[in-house]
């Protein structure tokens, strides 16, 4: 009955008192920076959907093809900048901590692997699905940061999204390799693919933030991919106020207290103004 409200003042009143805010984000928060979302028209690379390439099976069949896909996205995101939503979220984190001597906190729990929250100034970020700029050795399991552009010489000029792009497989020995001299194993992107479990430490950090949280913003996610999709409905079920910011309603909208339609670069800074503009 009733459905979610779009009463901005009511949300601002809640945020002014909140001690632990979680901002749960998805691809929509980066859409206005020019990073394509997954579902909808932007979600294709060549003729593939993300679901076809973001799997361990796809990497086993063709590490070259999967590396081309991730190389393309690494290079694309390097040309993009954090937008007003990323900046407002980062400024709210800083301000909230400053006015309370560190007692009040805002944590970003993101499904995105693009690093734009951190580049926008957020410090407390849980990356549920990993990072475009980290690698994971398939042999020694080492996880390493890697912002090289290109990540290896053989990928230079590869990864174009045009379906007619030449795509001779790159020999495995020329794909990204572990930097440890005694290993040199094949690297994979440090991202969570479909059918893979999220990393236990990541899940723990997300759980810690969610269990303490007394207000939650859900920004730019279709809320269909688990386990992230259950986080905000679980908070709402505990009567914690949840506000969704999305271009359109999602399957989770009716679980929530608030829904603010529209581009998040407008709606999110407005909602967080009660924190970012506080004296
Ligand atoms: C704007 C905007 C603007 C645009 N302003 N808004 C049932 C229960 C539990 C699990 C499952 C289940 N059924 C199937 C599963 C498994 C699966 C799953 O959830 N599948 C669903 C599709 C149903 N989950 C998994 O496999 C997870 N692992 C797991 O469950 O392990 C246990 C297990 C083991 C073995 C078998 C089965 C289970 C892992 C999921 C990992 C997801 N990884 C990806 C790819 C990462 C790597 C990469 O990027 O290449 O993560 S999938 C892809 O979707 C990516 C995203 O993080 C994720 C979420 O997408 P997101 O962010 O919501 O984007 P969109 O595009 O969907 O939505 C954008 C939204 O923004 C839209 O709503 C727009 O309207 C909005 N928007 N512009 C405001 N300007
Ligand atoms: Zn290694």
TrEMBL record:
PROSITE patterns found in the cross-reference section: SIRTUIN
Occurrences of domain Deacetylase sirtuin-type (ranges): 1-279
InterPro entries assigned: DHS-like_NAD/FAD-binding_dom, NAD-dep_sirtuin_deacylases, Sirtuin, Sirtuin_cat_small_dom_sf, Sirtuin_class_III, Ssirtuin_cat_dom
Region described as Disordered: spans on this chain: 151-176
Residue sites binding substrate per the record: 70, 73
Keywords for this protein: Metal-binding, Mitochondrion, NAD, Transferase, Zinc
Subcellular location: Mitochondrion
GO CC terms: mitochondrion
Coiled coil stretches, renumbered: none
Gene3D superfamilies: SIR2/SIRT2 'Small Domain, TPP-binding domain
Organism superkingdom: Eukaryota
This protein's domain notes: In contrast to class I sirtuins, class III sirtuins have only weak deacetylase activity. Difference in substrate specificity is probably due to a larger hydrophobic pocket with 2 residues (Tyr-70 and Arg-73) that bind to malonylated and succinylated substrates and define the specificity.
Family the UniProt entry places it in: Belongs to the sirtuin family. Class III subfamily.
Record's function text: NAD-dependent lysine demalonylase, desuccinylase and deglutarylase that specifically removes malonyl, succinyl and glutaryl groups on target proteins. Has weak NAD-dependent protein deacetylase activity; however this activity may not be physiologically relevant in vivo.
Protein name: NAD-dependent protein deacylase
Lineage, top ranks: Eukaryota, Metazoa, Ecdysozoa, Arthropoda, Hexapoda
């Amino acid at each position: 009955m009733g459905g979610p409200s779009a009463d901005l003042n009511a949300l601002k009143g809640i945020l002014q008192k909140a001690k632990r805010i979680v901002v749960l984000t998805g691809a929509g928060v980066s859409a206005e920076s020019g990073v394509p979302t997954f579902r909808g028209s932007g979600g294709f690379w060549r003729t593939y959907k993300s679901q076809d390439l973001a799997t361990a099976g796809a990497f086993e069949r063709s590490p070259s093809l999967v590396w081309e896909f991730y190389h393309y996205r690494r290079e694309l995101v390097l040309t993009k900048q954090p937008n007003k939503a990323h900046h407002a979220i980062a400024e709210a984190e800083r301000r909230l901590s400053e006015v309370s001597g560190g007692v009040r906190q805002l944590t970003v729990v993101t499904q995105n692997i693009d690093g734009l929250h951190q580049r926008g100034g957020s410090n407390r970020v849980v990356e549920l699905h990993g990072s475009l700029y980290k690698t994971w050795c398939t042999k020694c399991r080492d996880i390493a940061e890697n912002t090289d552009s290109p990540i290896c010489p053989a990928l230079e000029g590869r990864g174009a999204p045009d379906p007619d792009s030449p795509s001779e497989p790159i020999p495995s020995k020329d794909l990204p390799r572990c930097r440890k001299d005694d290993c040199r194993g094949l690297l994979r992107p440090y991202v969570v693919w479909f059918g893979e479990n999220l990393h236990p430490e990541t899940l723990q950090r997300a759980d810690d933030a969610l269990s303490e949280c007394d207000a939650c913003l859900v920004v730019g996610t279709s809320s269909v991919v688990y386990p992230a999709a259950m986080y905000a409905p679980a908070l709402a079920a505990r009567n914690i106020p949840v506000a969704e910011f999305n271009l359109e309603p999602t399957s989770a909208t009716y679980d929530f207290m608030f829904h603010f339609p529209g581009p998040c670069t407008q709606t999110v800074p407005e909602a967080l103004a009660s924190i970012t503009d506080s004296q």
